[in-house]
Amino acid sequence: MAGESFGTRAKNWLVKKGLKAVVAVPPLHRRLNRKLINSYASATRIRPRPFSMAADYTTWRGLTDRRYSGRHLPEARSYNAGLPPLDQVDALFKKTEDRRATDTSLLFPFFAQWFTDSFLRTKWKKPEAQDFAENESNHEIDLCQIYGVGEEQTRMLRSGEGGRLKSQTLNGEEFPVFLFEETAEGLTLKPEFDGLYTPDNFMRVFHKASDSHKKNAFAVGLEHGNSTVGNTVMNTLFLREHNRIAGVLAKAHPGWGDERLFQTARNVCIVILLKIVIGDYIKHIAPVDFPLMVVPGMAEKEHWYRTNWIAVEFALLYRWHDLIPATVTFNGETGDAATLRHNNALVMDLGVEKVCRDASRQLAGKIGLQNTPDFLLAMGVKKHSVQMARACALAPFNDYRRHYGKEPVRSFEALTGDPALARKLEALYGSIDRLEWFVGIFAEAYGESDMMGELLKIMVANDAFTQALTNPLLAVAVYNADTFGAEGLEIIEKTSTLAQVVARNTALQDEAGVGFKIRG
């Protein structure tokens, strides 16, 4: 949409003023916070869902075995049999111009990819066997990005002293240690990290990696941890935060050994991440500027307080490649956004603070069709996503709107607000009721105060709230000084934004210089 009407802007202004008045009264703030969260958390049926990728009907395995991804709606095989050619659908995502977001900074997609990679972990198989049914997710927000997916992997990443993670100093800054070492055979995986990733995942990521990529690769929790500048920045920030907190706890509790220091610092860091996700990240996605809060124990009183289970739709809807613009600028130099891939050298050379500040000063791309950079499209990111949606036999777009309590869209033009794009979609699908869900969520128009379409926003918020606020560390019986240490609890209570973590672990002087909203 080109813009918002005067009436819409006036309404938004009044809402903003009203929310400011509510926030000034803590009991009202907490009440509205709960109401807003519940409105999204209750947008569709709650878990357990009757279907999963284990079978196309309800089974005990499908209700209990979380190795199989969940699903919101049952299979629609006959519908998927008549969909348009894959290449023609893929072409809908090709960037036609470098459209930028209204106020979202490049730091947002840096965080978004790093955050979601930790739990959106579809299991990869050989092409002839790939059915996208299984996952390798822990189904929790657990900071496996820096701790690894299991205890064996966590042990590999720990220093064994002072509760710290292994780290090194480069150019005066703390970073994870390197994953590879020079041997007579060339760059090889350090023996201490054998088993950090599954053999299949290791080969998939590193078997074609260049020597420069391997040389600068850090030992982090997930195999894709070195794939982008954003992943490296976030892994480094949270490793520093963990080690910093371990130091605070060690000073306050000289009798604690390495194990307790590590486990307590880990608990603190996970809750810090949860607070950033709700109070900074989701807050930015919301169309109104309302300070969302993590209230320990709140979720326990709600009907949606259930075991986490990632659904295939959630794994797909986060394919926000459009957030990456055509070009990016760091240290005054502008280049193709492809430089964001496999470029740990950029982070080591400029430093974490500089990368965060520069990312905060440039607009991200705008979510939607016709805005995916060529280098990502050439990698098949959208084509693969459509293939996955079809292999999972997902229902059409309007079926999902109904599932989330929304009226079906009646025409392509009503969906897109763009006559030319509407004609392209109609030529491919014929009827709006035939439109694929994955295409529809990116085709849906939205106003300047939003950063995505209505259905996509609802689905993101629904899963975010119901799978973040159910974290066991937020339970009433768990959230206390025994779990975090009094010092850790104080750090948690004082943290609500990513900028605070950046400031605590870099030379950043002004937190206002970093954030998900564009900075001057």
UniProtKB/TrEMBL annotation:
It comes from the Bacteria. The keyword Ribosomal protein does not apply. The keyword Iron applies. SUPFAM superfamilies: Heme-dependent peroxidases (SSF48113). PROSITE patterns: PEROXIDASE_3. GO terms for biological process: fatty acid metabolic process; response to oxidative stress. GO terms for cellular component: cytoplasm. Signal peptide: none annotated. It holds the Pfam family An_peroxidase. One of its GO terms (molecular function) is metal ion binding. Keywords: Dioxygenase, Iron, Metal-binding, Oxidoreductase. This is Prostaglandin-endoperoxide synthase 2.
